[in-house]
Amino acid sequence: MARGRFITLEGGEGAGKSTQTGLLVAALVAAGIAAERTREPGGSRGAEDIRGLLLEGDAERWDAVSEALLLYAARRDHVVRLIQPALAAGTWIVSDRFADSTLAYQGYGRGLPLADLHELHRFALGEFRPDLTVILDLPVAEGLGRIGRRSMLSDRFEQLDREFHQRLRDGFLAIARGDPARCVVIDARPDCDSVHRAIRAAVGARLGVAFAA
Ligand SMILES: Nc1ncnc2c1ncn2[C@@H]1O[C@H](COP(=O)(O)OP(=O)(O)OP(=O)(O)O)[C@@H](O)[C@H]1O
Ligand SMILES: [Mg+2]
Q: Does residue 151 have a pLDDT over 80?
């Protein structure tokens, strides 16, 4: 049996990752491919427990290094327990966020050295990486607007927040430039169906899937 393919969807907050993960899995299944969705942080039981540690409590609960280590503890569990066995059984996996989010948030966003994060990846996962990464690119204000964040923030915090999210966006684009064989950047501004069709075209071209018209 042919090994399944591993596809990740990445991008800033509100870019449409969760929406497009669902649409892509449905399109793969309609094309006759066994496919399942998963997400990070989380995806496996241990990783979902760690997700709770990462998302609960105040923003200062973990410093950037502890956060990166927790994310990679979760990621290794997710890969070893869920993703690799599924791929070995011929199932395609589509993940809503993966390792590029750690590079973007903890590296470009919070300032950890990128070389250290690459080393952490190698220690946790060796050469394991996605077959294809779709980076959904959206202006920061549009992404935050979609998830209703602007009104909740004071002017000063909104400015800091905007700068952080701009570093994330620039970081994802730099990741794509650095690894064009794995990554494709998709304009996330059009409506959901148009973005979905652009993703299908990229998956078709890169991984040879014949989607139903
Ligand atoms: N192409 C689109 N055009 C307009 N609105 C969209 C589009 N795609 C998604 N949305 C809406 O924007 C919001 C965020 O979408 P979604 O949850 O898929 O993004 P996300 O990238 O997963 O966000 P988060 O980073 O918060 O997980 C949702 O309300 C969704 O319905
Ligand atoms: Mg989401």
A: no
Which pLDDT score is estimated for 58? Answer: 83
Token pair in block for residue 213: 């018209």
Give me the pLDDT at residue 154, please.
Answer: 58
Long-range contacts of 173-178 (CB under 8 A, 24+ apart): 173/135, 173/137, 174/108, 175/10, 175/100, 175/103, 175/104, 175/135, 176/133, 176/135
Q: In what order do the strands lie in the sheet with 132-137?
A: 35-39, 92-96, 6-11, 132-137, 183-187
Which domains does the chain show, CATH number per domain? 6-207 (3.40.50.300)
Give the C-alpha separation, 132 to 81, whole Å: 20
Calculate how far, in angstroms, residue 120's C-alpha sits from the geometric centre of ligand 2: 25
Across 123-132, b (16+ Cβ under 10 Å) vs e yields: ebbeebebbb
9 pLDDT above the threshold of 80: yes
- Which residue's CA is the nearest one to ligand 1's atom 3? 191
pLDDT at res. 1? 80
Supply the pLDDT for residue 57.
Answer: 84
- Using the mean position of ligand 1's atoms as its centre, give its distance from the Cα of residue 187 in Å: 13
Residue 116 has pLDDT above 90, yes or no: yes
